[in-house]
Amino acid sequence: MLKKIGVYAFLILAAFLSLFPFYFMFVSGTNTNAEILAAPPKLLPGSMLSHNFSILVEKMDIFRVAFNTLFISVVFTVLALMLYSAAGYVLAKFDFKGKGLIFSFIMVSMMIPPQVMYVPLFQLFVATGMTNTYTAVILPALANAFGIFLMRQNMMNFPTALVEAARIDGYSEFGIFCRIVLPNVKPALSALVIYMFTSMWNNFMWPLIVLETKDMYNFPVALAVLDGNPTTRTNKDFAVILLATAIATLPILIIFMVFQKQFVAGVMGGAVKE
User: Fold this and answer.
1) What is the spatial distance between Cα 261 and Cα 267, in angstroms, rounded to a whole number?
2) Three-class SS of residue 213?
3) Is 181:163 a contact under the CB 8 Å cutoff?
4) Which of 30, 50, 85, 196 is the right S-S partner for 80, CB 3.0 to 4.6 Å?
5) Domain count of the fold of the chain
6) CA distances from 236 to 3, 107, 163, 218, 243 (A)
7) 204, 47 Cβ separation under 8 angstroms
């Protein structure tokens, strides 16, 4: 009995420590700077939400930033879904010379920090005149080995007998992939969608490098430059900053809460062997 109480107490404490930063962020967006910086800070919702939002709209074109972030994230997720699922299917169900070498190369590339590619990528996009475009943000991110690995591992568990039966019935490879394989790996696809969408929604360093004008900024970059130098506290309006952060975080929380079961099932699916 005492052991069970201890476990529940630990879980409640862990949940509180995990959720409190989000609560404080959302609540702070409704308070004033003085209330946030007070000791102790105000922990209840205030009445400054509309005032803080009006200031936010003056300082940052939040609707344009939201459109940029959503457009980049959706387009990237759709392209990643098509590319990684097709690559995973080929690596899982086709036998051809060099398949093991290709997969090994993909796995090794996961150990390369993306930061080492920023300088040559930036020089490439400058030379082609593609800086400050959506394409410059999306294309480099498509070189993601994890997505291929996730789909390949899940499709390894898909019965090969069903693929062979479909071939005997006269299905084309494209038809087998779209009408038989994909509908049966929906948990993996859901996990891939969540992972890719959130990674692009929160993408900061590369957009900061390649995007040049404020009308092209996504949420992470726009938040970083919202109140001038991010390394100082001088004249910072923390209420507005936290409100903007809450707005940027809310879609990710909703998506994960809605699809969390599929996400867990998709991630675990690649670990189960036949």
Assistant:
1) 10
2) coil
3) yes
4) 196
5) 2
6) 47, 44, 60, 21, 13
7) no
pLDDT in tens, the chain (274 residues): 778 888 889 999 998 998 898 899 989 989 988 888 888 888 888 888 998 999 888 888 889 999 999 999 999 999 999 999 999 999 988 888 888 898 898 888 888 888 888 999 999 999 999 999 999 999 999 988 899 998 998 888 888 888 888 888 888 888 888 888 888 888 888 888 888 999 999 999 999 999 999 899 999 999 888 865 555 555 678 889 889 999 998 888 887 777 777 666 655 655 544 4
Tokens 């994890």 -> residue: 146
- Check whether residue 36 and residue 128 sit in a common domain: no
Are 24 and 76 in the same domain?
no
What are the distances in angstroms from CA 116 to CA 20, 109, 120, 146, 256?
A: 36, 12, 8, 18, 30
Domain holding 11, by residue range, is 1-47
Task: Indicate which CATH number applies to the domain containing 218.
Answer: 1.10.3720.10
Per-residue tokens: 202: 């929160």
Q: Are 198 and 255 in contact (CB under 8 A)?
A: yes
Of 197, 221, 195, whose CA–CA distance to 207 is shortest?
Answer: 221
Helix axis angle, 238-269 to 145-156, nearest 10°: 30
Do 205 and 265 share a domain, yes or no?
A: yes
Q: Is residue 274 part of a domain?
A: no
Whether residue 243 contacts residue 29, with contact meaning beta carbons closer than 8 Å, is answered with yes
Same domain, yes or no: 39 and 65: no
- Each as own residue / partner, the long-range contacts of residues 35-38 (CB below 8 Å, 24 or more positions apart, any chain) are 36/238, 36/239, 36/242, 37/238
Query: What is the rounded distance in angstroms from the CA atom of residue 201 to the CA atom of residue 241?
Result: 18
- Domain shared by 15 and 133, yes or no: no
